[in-house]
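Below is how a single chain appears once it has passed through the pipeline. First comes the sequence as given, then the structure the pipeline wrote out for it. We keep one example in the README because the format questions we get most often are answered faster by looking than by reading.
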Amino acid sequence: MSEKDLEGRVVLVTGASRGLGYAAAKNAAARGAHIVAVARTVGGLEDLDDDIQALGSSTTLVPLDLTDSEAIDRLGAAIFERWGQLDGLIGNAGLLGTLTPLPHIAPKEFAKVFEVNVTANYRLLRSLDLLLRQSDAGRAVFVSSGAALSAKPYWGLYAATKAALDAMIKAYAGEMAITNVKANIFYPGQVRTAMRAKAMPGEDPMTLPAPDEIAPKMVDLISPAYGKTGMRVDVLKGEEPL
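Resulting structure:
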């Protein structure tokens, strides 16, 4: 994609205070976007703001817990009042949950992981759909995982949430077929993040690509130049329809 393909566009990124979300926000800002950065961690958002200002771009910081559905609704209204549209949505925030046999998972944890990984993304689409339609090239991409397909033992909760997310975005992409909105899923593969370290504590993180190496591939999917929809874009395996 071109160096400034997001010039003048408004892009919202969830989970923007660290890891892949932080790197994606920085990359989109370097490509000209104004970033609406959503995360729970205020300190991480402030660091991101400093980094993006150093790039010559700008941010709107939104400290928000994605389990607060009413706050997500207010976010859509606030974006409408300020910009009247949204050009890009990067749904990056997610929880791993405990890697354990399914019967051992506490109901409260099961519900929370689904709430963040699935329900929050539905609420974002519910709040932001009309704003994406107002853009000349609305783009939405959501971070999923190969776990959705492999569903390995002990990964049942995380795998189930990502499989649900994939199905939900496949349906939404079909619903948007006659609009300018494109919606896709991104599989980042193994990345040097805190979530990966939690999942694989014995792994040498320096053997993995840094978030800054992977993020541009995800940001490409919110460029107006990316015209495909309903795709699974896998860093390791390429792209195919969901």
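The first strand starts at residue 10 and ends at 14.

See the next section for the split statistics.
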